[in-house]
Amino acid sequence: MSMFCYQCQEALKNVGCTQIGVCSKTAGVANLQDLLIYSLKGISVLNLKARELGFNREETDKFIIEGLFSTVTNVNFDKKFFLERIKQAVGLRESLKTELQQAGVDASELEKNPALSWKYSSESELETLAAKVGVLATADEDIRSLREIITYGLKGIAAYAYHARQLGFRDEGIHEFMEKALAATLDDSVGLERYVAMVLETGKYGVETMALLDKANTSTYGHPEITKVDIGVRQNPGILVSGHDLKDMEELLEQTAGTGVDVYTHGEMLPAQYYPAFKKYPHFAGNYGSSWWLQYKEFETFKGPILMTTNCLIPPRDSYRDRVYTTGVVGFSGLKHIPEGKYGRKDFSEIIEHAKRCQPPVEIERGEIVGGFAHHQVTLLADKVVEAVKSGAIRRFFVMAGCDGRMKNREYYTEFAKALPKDTVILTAGCAKYRYNKLPLGEIGGLPRVLDAGQCNDSYSLAVIALKLKEIFGLADLNELPISYNIAWYEQKAVIVLLALLYLGVKNIHLGPTLPAFLSPNVAKVLVEKFGLAGVGTVEDDLKLFLGQ
Ligand code: SF4
Ligand code: SF4
User: Fold this and answer.
1) Which of 11, 232, 239, 499 is least buried, going by the fewest C-beta atoms within 10 A?
2) Ligand 2 within 6 A of CB of 494
3) What 3-state DSSP class applies to 159?
4) Which pTM does this prediction carry?
């Protein structure tokens, strides 16, 4: 075994990738990611002491969230990036130790913890150590499972906190919790019960982080509104933007204004189309293509440069790799990277000049899709929605938020959406929507039957909508609402969405297309017994189950 990773839904045989990732992550990179996480845990132990003594620094918070985010599936495949970050982590760890000693902390106490005292003298030593500190370093499979659920939840929190931070929004309480939880995953005195409680606490902070990002996005760019998005092409050359970072989108739109270059969205950037602040740009064209795993085809035909602001990047094909640019914590050896700008603004001129030399995109489809049903917009429509529920025009809502992926078994979600009775409405967020958002599913009283709230982080909107409906209908429990949860997951941001829903008390969530490999049988049993968590079956059986037939 050269590596062990089971953090995403595509883990080999639903057990774990051991030689190379199904995502193409090499064993070397996988192990270095483990060492970076291990380093961040050590830094967290120290920084909690620094907080007690009143000298936490913002750069430490930034370093931790960037490090966690960079290890999320399909974010960064670049070995050099991880070697560099690990070296920086050791530097940060040592400077924190010095400061703590100066503040009176006993140095020998700090050296007792192996995560705080390991040393290296060469990169090859780093690689050797990296192979020893991964997931399997925890022998007990239940403790390992709970530690990893917490760590993956924290990766999701880190991703959302990163985007909020880009817009100037941060919350010290979230950072402090992340450090406590990271430190707890190193602590052998923490038992099963405490870890189970911490899983739910991670969900609580997931809700807070998504609320923070929602505030950051909506106060900066306005509330998403109902929008018809063109899925065809225009005649100018274009730049395709993927990922989740709205600040990058804003800066690129500003810098492309008047250049004759259009800007399109791909994958999880589609919901940028719903924000009022971006609609003022006449060169903001529509959405090109669909979800992340189809980029090998869609980046080919797009013809112009592509900017990956976050995941999900797949290894680019030679035919278009010179057109793919990364930014933020995204990385892939050999791709051009747009760094942070000196004054907090990035310089996208190289991509813009590149676009001018390219052909316009090749048309792959025509038409429109509709979205923009985040919590504010749905609240404006509340009367209509409530009336439709009371009259029976809407029998049930299906939350089908989450992820898309390349495996064939995800066709289940398309078939499920098609088979749903016409008096049901799908509430969605995340890239799972591409499995059914172009189907002619019709409307109910003028409302589309697929209501797209936005990106995966906008799953927060779906929780807000459910809480609002609970209030309007005067119910004591969220689970009394006519809402079923049939969620698709893929990577660690979806893990935090799931933990957030569990924390909010949502029961009987069906999670597919397979349950996570990182759930040990005992941990899975707890989730089944306590929360009614279930996998998916056949479309026919699941429909009967959900509709009580
Ligand atoms: S991220 Fe997923 S596909 Fe990639 S190595 Fe880990 S489990 Fe395998
Ligand atoms: S919806 Fe899922 S796969 Fe898509 S970007 Fe979000 S977390 Fe990743």
Assistant:
1) 232
2) yes
3) helix
4) 0.98
